[in-house]
Amino acid sequence: MIGLVIFLLVLWAALAILGFAIKGLFWLAIIGLILFVITALIGFIRRNA
Known about the structure:
Layout: H1 2-21, H2 26-48
Helix pairs in contact: 1-2
């Protein structure tokens, strides 16, 4: 489970960086950041449960 969460965090971070690097894909950066935060929260909650 922790491996999947780390993989998703890296994937979302890469999408966010790509979105910020390419001005036309700013929406991708926003989606990547939102998914990064949601995945981090889910991973943190499940780790403590």
